Every structure is written in structure tokens, then in C-alpha cells.
Hints:
Strand content: 25-35%
Distance between the termini: 55 Å
CATH superfamily of the largest domain: ATPase, nucleotide binding domain
CATH class of the largest domain: Alpha Beta
Low-confidence stretches: none
Number of helices: 6
Radius of gyration: 18 Å
Strand order of the largest sheet: 3-2-1-4-7
Number of strands: 10
Largest sheet: 5 strands, mixed
Shape: globular
CATH architecture of the largest domain: 2-Layer Sandwich
Amino acid sequence: MEAPQVIGIDLGGTAIKMGRFAADGACLQSLTIATPQPPTPEIVLTEIVNALAQIDPSQQTIAIGIGTPGPADAAGRIAKIAINLPGWIDIPLADWLETKTGRPTVVANDANCAGMGEAWLGAGRRFRNLILLTLGTGVGGAIIIDGKLYVGHFGASGELGLITIRPDGPTCNSGNQGSLEQYTSASAIRRRTGKDPSELGQLAAAGDPKP
């Protein structure tokens, strides 16, 4: 009997990343696809299901976990809101994926997933208390206290990217003014420079001194 395997999915505003993993966390196969634009829930679901057929063609995995850019409900069934995915409010993503794949599915905040991963196998494994920041289309965060993930009363603690740092700054998708992710995210870089971060990286590597 083969050892159990699971699927992990990171749903972002720019890309959808997924991997097939062994029980010890080893990644057996990975795949990255572009997030469809506009990223309506139905279209995103279709793309995820199509990608799953590539990464797990024999359907040997036993469960799916998916991280979304915003809070999930306490039961891990519903993507309550995805800050950088327009129209994503109270989406029953776990139910949808279970219906399409026949495999148990859990939904959680993407940064919380990253924080737990770092605490388990990554840079945080030697520490009981840590804060993690994720940098991408937006800025996410996770807080781990005494080895346990802290999510607060409403499951949204650790959204450090939404903290206002300049009250007169650009409006955030959360409704805040001048939040951290308006200055440090991929979206902020595109807004301020007109270029993707990857393009700026290539220019920098080529010796272009312009900011």
C-alpha cells in the first residue's frame, strides 16, 4: 500500500500554485498556472480542477488543502473574502472542490498556511513564537504564539498587510487608506512603476539604475 499523499494549493491574485506532497512534507510534484482574469470564482474553480488533473492524473491523493488570500470560516469550508480577488465573498470553495474531485477539502488563509509550514519545516521550526509576512499580489501575515496559530475571534488576525501606515495614502481593497500592501506588494510596484516585479528584476540584473 502506497503512503498517503495530499494536494496543497496556493490561490493568489496573479498565480495559482499547487503541489503533491508526501506525509513528511516532501514535494513530489508542483505546478504553477496564471490566475485567470477576471478571477471569477467559477472560472478559477475550473482552472484549478484542470490543473489537478495534470498534477494528480491517477487521483492517488487523499485530501486537498487550499489557501486563499483572505479569511476562511472556522470550519475551513468558506472563503469569506479574498481581498485581491474581486467578487470573492462567502464562496463555498471546499464544497465546490469536493463535488468536483471527490476528495475532502479544507480552506484556510494563505498566509496562515505559510506560517504553519515555516513553523513545521522551515525557518521558524526552532522557535515557539514568530510572525510571518507573505509578499505577493498583496501582503499577508501569520502570527504563531507558543507554537500555536493565532487567528483571533473572527479568524482574521495577522492581516498585517492591511494595517494603515499612511492615513492619506492610496485606498486599499480592504477599505483602509495607505495600508502596508499599498507600498510593498507586487500590485503597488506595478502601480508606481508601470512594470511587473519580474521585469524590474531583469532590468536591475542588466545594470539599469532606474528605480
